[in-house]
Amino acid sequence: MRVRLNLATKPTETHRRFLAGAGVSIFAAAVVFLGLGWHAYSVRNAAAEVRARTDKMDQEFAKYEAQRQELERYFSQKDIASLHDRATFINGIIDARSFNWTQMFMDLEHTLPPGVRVIRIEPKQVGGHVEVKLAVGATNDEAKLNFLHILATSKHFSDVQEQSDVSPSTANNVGGDQRIVQLTTTYSGT
Fold first, then answer.
1. How far from chain centre, in Å, is Cα 156?
2. Whole-angstrom Cα distance, residue 145 to residue 183?
3. What is the pLDDT of residues 48-59, one digit of tens each?
4. CB neighbour class for 111 (10 Å; exposed up to 12, middle 13-18, buried from 19)
């Protein structure tokens, strides 16, 4: 039988635990390093794609800007500008004729309560809607308030703004009105 003896003053120590821990740490660090490397590579590729798309959009923007400037130069020519003004004028006439003025007057007639009459009316088409300036005469304050309430709650008239409310003098009061109200409103035929 053989006996192993160590005659050294210090017994030999095993470094297996340290080496195993260091190996695991190195392996974990390598995995983290590879993961971070892959992430950096992915981010760089994504940034390159974004830069490529941005460059493409900048080129398209420059192309469209050049087209816009070319069109502005074309439309700023004197004969084209006069043609545009004429087309705007004709379109305004067409819009005015296509609007159902009769329906607007019928809707206004249905909103007039007893004791109120229209003295003056000035409809004007502005930007796709009709702005109406009215001067109405009322036989008393109750009729005037009733008309304003009906007009404000009407589905055809909106944005009612009273401009003035005066008592006419007896010399030029032909209709027997006690109050003359001037107002503006917006008409929508819907």
1. 25
2. 13
3. 999 999 999 999
4. middle
pLDDT greater than 80 at residue 139: yes
- Asked if residue 109 lies in contact with residue 117, where contact means CB atoms within 8 angstroms, the answer is no
**Tokens 């120590």 — which residue?**
13
Q: Name the β-bridge partners of 186.
A: 131, 158
CB 110 within 8 A of CB 154: no
How many residues can be counted in the chain?
Answer: 190
SS3 36: helix
R_g over Cα of the chain: 44
Q: What is the distance between the alpha carbons of residues 126 and 8, in angstroms, rounded to a whole number?
A: 111
pLDDT by residue (tens digit) across 13-25? 778 888 899 999 9
The string of DSSP codes covering 45-105 is HHHHHHHHHHHHHHHHHHHHHHHHHHHHHHHTSHHHHHHHHHHHHHHHHHHHHHS-HHHHH
DSSP structure class, residue 17: H
Phi, psi of 139 (to 5 degrees): -75, -25
